[in-house]
């Protein structure tokens, strides 16, 4: 069951978080907590996976950001 109303205006994560900013804060806090506490992967491996998924969905903005963070976390940029 959905907790958010259905609307053609709410067709992206950005539009949903704009309309419901408190839910966005809770969502990002949850993602942050999960990433820190429950992941069997280290931070670099997690970023590498996120980079790969960003490439699969053709989100250049996400890919570029996560690719840069992967390199900072020690992932060889040749792998990416």
Average of pLDDT: 81
Poorly predicted regions are none
User: Care to count the β-strands?
Assistant: 0
The H-and-E topology, N to C, reads as HHHH
Fraction of helical residues: 55-70%
Compact description:
The chain has helices at residues 13-19, 21-37, 43-56, 60-72.
Task: Describe the 3D structure.
The chain is mainly α and 80 residues long. It folds into 2 domains: 8-38, no CATH class; 43-72. The chain has 4 helices and no strands. The protein has helices spanning 13-19, 21-37, 43-56, 60-72. α1 packs across α2 (21-37) and α3 (43-56) runs antiparallel to α4. It is globular, with a radius of gyration of 15 Å. The model has no long low-confidence stretch (mean pLDDT 81).
Keywords:
80 residues, mainly alpha, 2 domains, globular
List the helices and strands and how they pair.
Layout: H1 13-19, H2 21-37, H3 43-56, H4 60-72
Helix pairs in contact: 1-2, 3-4
């Amino acid at each position: 069951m959905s907790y958010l109303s259905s609307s053609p205006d709410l067709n992206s994560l950005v539009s949903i978080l704009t309309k419901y900013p408190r839910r966005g804060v809770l969502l990002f806090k949850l993602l942050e907590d999960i990433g820190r506490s429950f992941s069997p992967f280290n931070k670099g491996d997690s970023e590498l996976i996120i980079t790969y998924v960003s490439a699969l969905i053709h989100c250049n903005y996400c890919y570029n950001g996560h690719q840069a963070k992967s390199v900072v976390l020690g992932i060889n940029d040749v792998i990416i």
